[in-house]
Every structure is written in structure tokens, then in C-alpha cells.
Design a protein that fits this description.
InterPro entries: DUF454. Helix content is 79%, strand content 0%. It has 119 residues and is an all-alpha fold.
């Protein structure tokens, strides 16, 4: 019963990752890593396809082997977080407590991403 749910969730993560290719405020690699994890529990064929994919595969393999995030992906992630916060700040005009909470969450996320090995 869990396998079909994992497969559906895996394809949802792939869809979100593809959307992240064109929307700079959405990550791609994180969704693809999640998709690979879900496919590992539901469909070895789809997991193998994702790991062998010329664009999505290498970052997933690097993550699985040693928790590495390529330098370009780190930079893009950090810049996207800053940009996303800027859009949030100017479009939503959040209350100071909400802006602070989002800033802390993004800073923690950025610290995690930047602290990972590069290779």
C-alpha cells in the first residue's frame, strides 16, 4: 500500500524540481533528492532513471555518497534565498516578527547548505 503513495510523491517531487528549473525561488536539487529517496522505496526503475539522468543524477549521487553540494548549487541556493526574502519583504510587507522568523529560517537553511562539503 505504501509503494504507490511513495511513487506518487516521488513524481510530485520531480514535478516540483522541474518547476524549480524555471522559478529561481524554488530549489531543484532538494526535490530531486527527495524524489530519489521516494523512488528507492517504491520503484527501483524510476530511482535508476533519476540517478542516471545527465542533469539531475550527479547532484543526487554526490549527496548520497558524502552529503556534498556542488559550489554552483550552493551559490545559487544562497542567492535564491536572499532573492526570495526580498520578494517576500516587498510584496507581502510582513509584520516584523514574521519577517524575523522567515529570516532566521532562511539563515539556518543557508548555513546548512553552505556548510556541506563541495565534492
Amino acid at each position: 500500500m505504501k509503494r504507490p503513495l511513495y511513487a506518487i510523491a516521488g513524481w510530485l517531487m520531480v514535478a516540483l524540481g522541474v518547476i524549480g528549473l524555471v522559478l529561481p525561488v524554488m530549489p531543484t536539487t532538494v526535490f530531486m533528492i527527495l524524489a530519489a529517496w521516494l523512488f528507492a522505496r517504491s520503484s527501483p526503475r524510476f530511482e535508476a532513471w533519476l540517478l542516471a539522468h545527465p542533469i539531475f543524477g550527479p547532484p543526487i549521487v554526490q549527496w548520497r555518497q558524502n552529503g556534498a553540494i556542488p559550489p554552483l548549487a550552493k551559490g545559487f541556493a544562497a542567492i535564491s534565498m536572499v532573492g526570495g526574502f526580498g520578494v517576500f519583504w516587498f510584496v507581502v510587507r510582513p509584520a516584523p516578527w514574521l519577517a524575523g522568523a522567515v529570516a532566521v529560517a532562511l539563515l539556518a537553511s543557508a548555513a546548512f547548505v553552505l556548510s556541506r562539503p563541495s565534492h
